[in-house]
Write a structure and sequence with these properties.
single chain; about 150 residues; alpha+beta; Yope Regulator, Chain: A; five-stranded antiparallel sheet
C-alpha cells in the first residue's frame, strides 16, 4: 500500500517505530531521537508527494573539501535503498546534512522502513568510524585548485 501524502506516511512510520502520535510541527518537520546525540528529521518535501529524511553529520562546512563532498555523496548512494539520497548544508549553522527523499505515493510501508533503516545505518556510520574514514580518504593527493 502506498500513501497519499507525507502526513499519512509519517503516521504509518511512527506506528511502526512505536512512536504513534508523532506529527509534523508548524514547519512541516517531525523529529525522532535515535540516540543521545543523533536526531533524524522527517519533513514534508518540496513536492507534496515526498517525505524527506534528514540528519546532521558531525562535519562543518569549513571542513568540506571537494574530495570529501564527492566521497560523502558516493557513500550515501552506495548505501542502497529506495529514494534519492543526497547531502546539503544547513544554512543556519553550516553543518552538513545527509538526506533521502521518498516518493510516498509509490512506496509501501516496508519500502519506507527499509529506506529509513538504510539511512540510519549511514547516519550511525558517519557518527563513528565512517567519519574517520571519510576524513582520511578525502585528503587531496598532489596539487589542488580551490
Amino acid at each position: 500500500m502506498s500513501y497519499p501524502s507525507p502526513a499519512h506516511a509519517l503516521s504509518a512510520i511512527a506506528q511502526e517505530l512505536g512512536a504513534s502520535g508523532l506529527s509534523f510541527d508548524e514547519n512541516g518537520i517531525a523529529r525522532i531521537g535515535i540516540s543521545d546525540d543523533i536526531v533524524v528529521a522527517l519533513a514534508q518535501g518540496v513536492r507534496e508527494d515526498c517525505l524527506d529524511i534528514v540528519a546532521e553529520i558531525p562535519v562543518a562546512l569549513e571542513e568540506l573539501s571537494h574530495e570529501m563532498a564527492v566521497n560523502l555523496l558516493l557513500a550515501n548512494f552506495r548505501a542502497g535503498g529506495l529514494g534519492l539520497p543526497t547531502f546539503s548544508v544547513n544554512p543556519t549553522d553550516g553543518k552538513v546534512l545527509i538526506s533521502n527523499t521518498l516518493q510516498v505515493n509509490r512506496l509501501s510501508l516496508e519500502d519506507m522502513m527499509n529506506a529509513f533503516k538504510s539511512f540510519t545505518g549511514v547516519l550511525y556510520h558517519y557518527h563513528g568510524q565512517g567519519l574517520k574514514d571519510l576524513r582520511e580518504h578525502s585528503k587531496p593527493e598532489g596539487s589542488t585548485i580551490n
